[in-house]
TrEMBL record:
Keywords: Glycoprotein, Signal. Residues 1-16 form the signal peptide. It comes from Vigna unguiculata (Cowpea). InterPro entries: Cu-oxidase-like_N (IPR011707), Cu-oxidase_2nd (IPR001117), Cu-oxidase_C (IPR011706), Cu-oxidase_fam (IPR045087), Cupredoxin (IPR008972), CuRO_2_AO-like (IPR034271), CuRO_3_AO-like (IPR034275). Residues 48-149, 162-299, 379-516 form the Plastocyanin-like domain. Belongs to the multicopper oxidase family. It holds the Pfam family Cu-oxidase. This is L-ascorbate oxidase. One of its GO terms (molecular function) is copper ion binding.
Amino acid sequence: MAVVLCFSLFAMVAVAEDPYRFFNWNVTYGDIYPLGVRQQVLLSSYVSYICVVLEDLIRPDIHSVTNDNLIINVFNSLDQPFLLSWNGVQQRRNSFEDGVSGTTCPIPPGGNFTYILQVKDQIGSFYYFPSLAFHKAAGGFGGIRILSRPRIPVPFDDPAGDYTVLIGDWYKLNHTDLRAILDGGSKLPFPDGILINGRGSNGASFNVEQGKTYRLRISNVGLENSLNFRIQNHKLKLVEVEGTHTVQTTYSSLDVHVGQSYSVLVTADQPAQDYYIVVSSRFTSTVLTSTAILRYSNSAGPVSGPPPGGPTIQIDWSLNQARSIRTNLTASGPRPNPQGSYHYGLINTTRTIILSSSAGIVNGKQRYGINSVSYLAPDTPLKLADYFKISGVFRVGSISDRPTGGGIYLDTSVLQTDYRTFVEIVIQNDEDVIQSYHLDGYSFFVVGMDGGQWTAASRNQYNLRDAVSRSTTQVYPKSWTAIYIALDNVGMWNLRSEFWARQYLGQQFYMRVYTTSTSIRDEYPVPKNALLCGRASGRHTRPL
């Protein structure tokens, strides 16, 4: 439903601390016409002393620098609970602030909550989104950019401009209607279109000057479809993926799977006119396409010719491109030491976890699961139940670390893992649809992907030198993807499908990264301003 954000931003430097940036957002209803029909969606507004409503689905970007503290005060003027989550922000030692139902109590109607985040030891391009009640189908997302600190070298020159490009498939139905379809036990229909920065075809434009180079931070914030991104007569030089500087490979187009973020450099090196920016769906029988405009400041005319075509159903093309995306080993990350100084390929794994998705009918309704378990949200956030030692909310080990082969069933699935271990996770996709998975709290190394069934022999083809480190990965149909991950962040972390209807209907679980230590060096205590709900109501947070 339409949400207007009254937004204000202040930045100051506290003595002997990392900088603080303050945001105030108010969430309310409003209407727009993104695909030509009236819809109730989440809108945004920007406040600088005076609140000005923008006819846009996209909220303001969050601009920050490595280690900044972000203080984000959200007022919920909706008639239903609301939460924001921060895709790719690792919430070091602090899963309480993650903004998903398993970690954070929702902001009640008429209430407010102040998120206290730190972008500790991170750089790169990410986004935030509303995580409850299928609100994501109503927009309300925005970009997050984390810049390197001034003394940390970046492996490319400062661009002349830096644009956030949020792309995603879209329905003409309101999110409440879509949610009702899912709650009724049915699957969603095929989406109606694609939006670029909250607008339909040719509704968005990006201004450039001839001869200059620009950075585009592209995130697929849609509900289910992988999308291909391309610019007429221009090349895309990939430089960063979800916080990792990459080998600077040039592409004519780029597959961006749902939930993923990429940074590319584009040089305005063509004759001065307008050019199509094209986004189209991948691996779909009906190809959705939308366009925006790359506009030269000295343009001699409008766009000409048909929009350039792109790949459609070719899996090998996409797989080969994915394998070509590698870490720049000599570039600095958030710290001055090179990214290649962490030799993940020389570390012995202590555990192998194999995950497999499934779909089925439970109690007459469509459900989805992982290792046969379809996630059922409890009445109390898992993290609060864990912190306050409230019994009966979840069981450790309620999901197996191997596929069971049994039928799908409902449970509050929590997988136990140990702090400071190094694990291998294999995601097996035996279905005919491409899948995309995200893990909160972490960045992992995508060491391998291929068709067929994963076996121990599949490790022979792993990239143990310069695999890209990221937080969202795709798994192609009838294929597998393998990741390595150092479990160095204590907390309760959501591993979910980015196919949002599947996530809503149970294709997710929580990974409990556990230690017996109670030191704040390992995990922060519950925030003093934490909302307490369910069986945690009436408990006490830490004193001021």
